[in-house]
Every structure is written in structure tokens, then in C-alpha cells.
Automatic annotation (TrEMBL):
One GO MF term attached to the UniProt entry: transmembrane signaling receptor activity
Transmembrane parts of this sequence: 237-261, 268-286, 298-319, 433-453
Name of the protein in its database record: 5-hydroxytryptamine receptor 3C-like
Catalysis: reaction(s): Ca(2+)(in) = Ca(2+)(out); Na(+)(in) = Na(+)(out); K(+)(in) = K(+)(out)
Organism: Labrus bergylta (ballan wrasse)
Length: 455
């Protein structure tokens, strides 16, 4: 009982001694923010209209969601924090239980009408519900937003490129005498902080975030413009594996095809296949790159030169094949057909019975082979052999003659082949010269273009 009374006493004395108000609502009541708030958002919150409102701005990078070459779009996810002074709002924290800050709904106070120049789509990410007001009237507002912005990308060095994209912030209607835009952090601080908070970068490696300020003049008035420049470097690995290396491999295949034998259409077929494979790869490139007229991307040069080299080598192969074909046709004409004709004529001049002789010789050969077969089949019939030998010695002589003739032709043809004919000689020369030209061009071009890529 005694204890309870003591407790009551303590409470009552406490209530008497600290007559402090400790609720946010009291602060708002004191500021007249609970009754009619429209006065607080009607106009720029300055007591003297000639004073500019100083808005301090910070933008940090949370994530690089996309950076698309084809559509020239840059989609970062950024965190923007703003700070300005609302003159007319102030309280003494000592009077309100030491309350120095209160959070109020964002649409209760005036807010700077900032917008982003490059933004091409309205931001649909959820807004922060509250803004912070401190006892001296400074208002803090923070926003996360996905900015779909346009960015003029330079794809000259794709895929070893570095891109710079701007996000420019300015007031829509307040010119520089009414509103000043000031960066809160300098470039090095912004870069460092962005590195700390950056969650995902994807294909891109964040390098730098720099801040600069411009005054743009329009209708004889100046607007202050804060430009945040994001510098990002592409990670080229995927494109190297996906595109540059395969093209290089096909080039190697094309080079290797010089060691495929020239005759018949095998080499030609191989080269056409390689060329087709490269054209499929070119389609991929068409998907990635925008059609920019001012400057040819190095990767296009790379493809066009390699494609052209392959095309030239294909044409060269066609030429060489044609030359060899021509040669073999000529040989065939000069070869057996002509020989026979020649021989026939020679025989005709010797005696009129060419056809007969040929016929007989043929028949003889048949007979001989038949005899030989018989000889093989029937070794018993040896007594007949002598008779046949004496009777067919004439025929054997004829055969010998024929064989000699044949050997001569074969010799002639062999020597012909060794010489290779005029056309195949040229074909071999062209082949060699083109191989040297091909290898030199490729070994000059590849280092040059890689140097161009890396500077
Ligand atoms: C709130 O309004 C009352 C009159 O309606 C005025 O006397 C008082 O000064 C105002 N408070 C502030 C902080 O302006
Ligand atoms: C980005 O802003 C810088 C100034 O900070 C300017 O020099 C550059 O041209 C701008 N780039 C683009 C793509 O607008
Ligand atoms: C940037 O600001 C930080 C403090 O925020 C300061 O230490 C640093 O020296 C500044 N850098 C430059 C280049 O002004
Ligand atoms: C823009 O104009 C304001 C006011 O005239 C001036 O203080 C500021 O230095 C200017 N900014 C630039 C970048 O010229």
C-alpha cells in the first residue's frame, strides 16, 4: 500500500515538473501544417522573392539496368537526394522535447520542379511517401528511380568501347535567379559512393560519375543545368567469344583450305561453306549494332575485310579450278583420241586394210587371252601348245608392236603430265602468289585492327 502511494506520488510530481509536449503533431500544429497546407505548396518558399532557392542535389548510381546500342537507350537505376530550405518553417527543438526532424507526406510542401532532359519515359517506380523537415526549415527528399534515358553512344570501337551517358537535371520553370542547382558531392565523392552502393552492372563496368554545371540560355533567360556524366566500359568477353573468335576461326579454316588438293570441286565446296557460315555471323552483328552513317564501326571493317578476303580466295579457287579443268580437257583431246586418229591414219597410209588389221589384232588378242585361259585351265593340253605357238607367233609379234606403240604414248602423256600443261602451270603459280598475298594481308590487317581497337 505504502509502495503504491509512493509510485503515485512520483508520477504526479513528474507530470507537474515536465510540462513538455512530446508529439510530432504538436510541432505540426505549431507550424500550422495541420489546418490548411495549401499555403505551403503554393509558391517558392522564400520570404523575399529576390532570394533564389538553393537546391542541393546528389545522384548516385544503384544499378546499370541496360545500355542498348541498337536503340541508344541508357537505363540506370539511380538514387537522387535533394535538399532545399523552406523559409517560414522553423521551430525550437528545445520547446518540443528535442524534436529536430519530422517526416511529413511529400505533397504537403512545395517541391522543386526538377526534370531530366534525357528521360524518354515517365518513371513508374513507386515514390517515396515522406519527406523530412528539420527544425531550421531544411527539407530533405530522397527518391529511387529508374530512368529510361536516351544516350548517344559511340559504337566505333564496339565491343571494346567506353560509353559516356549524361543525365541532365534542370528546373522546368524557375530560371537561375529564382533557383540555383548545386551539386552536393563533387565528382570524386559521387564516384566513390556510387562504387559502394552499386548492386549490378551486368555487361558494363562502372568507371566514373562526374558532375558539372551549365547555364543554358533560352528566351533571354538562364536556367541552371546540372549534368551527371556516367562513364562505363563494356566487358567484351561475351562478344569476343560469340563473334570475333568464330570469324577468326573461319578465316583460319579458309587459309587451311589452301592445302586441300585443287582438282575436283571439294575445295570449292569447302570455301563456299565457310563463306556461308561467316554470313550467318554477320546477321548477328546486324542485330547488335545500330545503323550509324557517320563512322564505320571497327568491327564492321573487321568483318568486311575478312569477308572480302574469303570472297577473293573463293574467286581464286574458281579460277584455278577452271584453268586445271581446261588443261585436263586439252590433255584428253591431245591424248588418246588424237593418238588413235594419228595411228589410224598412219596405218591407212601403210596399207588399205586398217580396219581389218585392227579387227584381226583385236580378235587375236581375244584368242590369245582365251588360249591363255585355256592354258591356265587346262595345263594337261601341252602337246597342243607347240602348235599354237608356231601358229600365233605372228600374232604375238603384232601384240609386241602394239605394246611398244602403247608405251610410247604413255611416255608422251607422262611427260605431258610432268610439264603439267600451260594452264595448270599458271594455276599453280596463281595459287602460290595468292597464298602469299592472303597470308601477308591477314597478318598485317589483324594486328592493325587490334591496335586500333585498343587505343
Ligand atoms: C499559425 O497561425 C496562427 C494564426 O492562425 C499564427 O498566429 C501563428 O503565428 C502561425 N504559426 C506560425 C508558425 O506561423
Ligand atoms: C554530356 O555532358 C558533357 C558535359 O558535361 C558534354 O560535353 C557532352 O557532350 C555530353 N554528352 C552527350 C552525349 O550529350
Ligand atoms: C570532394 O569532396 C570531398 C569531401 O566531400 C573532399 O575531401 C575532396 O577533396 C573533394 N575533391 C575535390 C576534387 O574537390
Ligand atoms: C550560372 O549563372 C549563375 C548566376 O548568374 C552564376 O552564379 C553561375 O556561376 C553560372 N554558372 C555557370 C556554370 O556559368
Amino acid at each position: 500500500m505504502m509502495r503504491f502511494a509512493f509510485l503515485l506520488l512520483v508520477i504526479s510530481t513528474d507530470g507537474v515538473t515536465s510540462k513538455k509536449v512530446c508529439s510530432y503533431l504538436d510541432v505540426l500544429d505549431y507550424l500550422n501544417l495541420t489546418k490548411d497546407t495549401s499555403a505551403f505548396k503554393l509558391t517558392r518558399p522564400v520570404l523575399d522573392y529576390t532570394d533564389p532557392t538553393r537546391v542541393e542535389l546528389d545522384i548516385f548510381l544503384y544499378a546499370i539496368l541496360a545500355l542498348v546500342e541498337k536503340t541508344q537507350t541508357f537505363i540506370p537505376f539511380i538514387w537522387a537526394s535533394m535538399k532545399w530550405k523552406h523559409e517560414g518553417i522553423s521551430w525550437d527543438p528545445a520547446e518540443f522535447c528535442g524534436i529536430t526532424q519530422i517526416a511529413i507526406p511529400r505533397d504537403m510542401l512545395w517541391r522543386p520542379d526538377l526534370f531530366i532532359f534525357e528521360m524518354t519515359q515517365k518513371d513508374d517506380s513507386p515514390l517515396n511517401l515522406y519527406i523530412l523537415v528539420s527544425s531550421d526549415g531544411t527539407v530533405y527528399s530522397e527518391e529511387d528511380m529508374k530512368v529510361v534515358s536516351t544516350c548517344k553512344m559511340d559504337v566505333h570501337k564496339f565491343p571494346f568501347d567506353t560509353q559516356r551517358c549524361n543525365i541532365s537535371v534542370a528546373s522546368a520553370i524557375h530560371h537561375v535567379d529564382e533557383m540555383r542547382l548545386l551539386p552536393c558531392s563533387n565528382s570524386s565523392r559521387a564516384t566513390q559512393f556510387s562504387r559502394e552502393v552499386l548492386k549490378t552492372q551486368g555487361e558494363w563496368e562502372f568507371m566514373q560519375l562526374s558532375v558539372s554545371s551549365f547555364n543554358i540560355t533560352y528566351n533571354n533567360r538562364q536556367w541552371e543545368n546540372l549534368v551527371y556524366t556516367f562513364t562505363m566500359r563494356r566487358r567484351p568477353l561475351l562478344h569476343v567469344i560469340n563473334f570475333l573468335l568464330p570469324v577468326l576461326f573461319f578465316l583460319c579454316l579458309d587459309l587451311a583450305s589452301f592445302f586441300i588438293a585443287d582438282h575436283r570441286g571439294e575445295k570449292l565446296g569447302f570455301k563456299v561453306t565457310v563463306l556461308l557460315a561467316i554470313s550467318v555471323l554477320l546477321l548477328i552483328l546486324n542485330d547488335i549494332l545500330p545503323s550509324m552513317s557517320n563512322k564505320t564501326p571497327l568491327i564492321a571493317t573487321y568483318c568486311i575485310v575478312i569477308f572480302a578476303m574469303m570472297l577473293l580466295s573463293l574467286l581464286e579457287t574458281i579460277l584455278v579450278t577452271h584453268l586445271m579443268e581446261k588443261d585436263s580437257v586439252a590433255q584428253e583431246k591431245v591424248g588418246p583420241a588424237d593418238d588413235w586418229q594419228h595411228k589410224k591414219e598412219k596405218m591407212k597410209t601403210q596399207d588399205g586394210t586398217t580396219e581389218d588389221k585392227k579387227q584381226t589384232s583385236c580378235v587375236c588378242i581375244c584368242q590369245v587371252s582365251a588360249a591363255e585361259k585355256q592354258h591356265e585351265l587346262l595345263p594337261m593340253a601341252e602337246e597342243d601348245n607347240s602348235r599354237i605357238q608356231s601358229g600365233d607367233s605372228q600374232v604375238l609379234l603384232l601384240i609386241l608392236e602394239e605394246l611398244k606403240e602403247l608405251q610410247k604414248t604413255v611416255d608422251l602423256r607422262l611427260s605431258c603430265r610432268l610439264e603439267g600443261g600451260k594452264s595448270s602451270l599458271w594455276a599453280a603459280r596463281i595459287n602460290k602468289a595468292f597464298l602469299i598475298f592472303y597470308v601477308t594481308t591477314v597478318s598485317l590487317f589483324l594486328p592493325l585492327i587490334f591496335i586500333a581497337w585498343h587505343t
